[in-house]
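Batch manifest, entry 17 of 40.
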Amino acid sequence: MEAKLTVHEPLVVGIMESGRGKPIWTWEDVNAAPGSG
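Output type: structure tokens
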């Protein structure tokens, strides 16, 4: 269950950012982002 929370965190942020004119994060973006791991 804990993993699901960590999974949703970046996705929620991506969706919120998309509302500000930014693209929704994809798992490729999350994996390529520095400090994501």
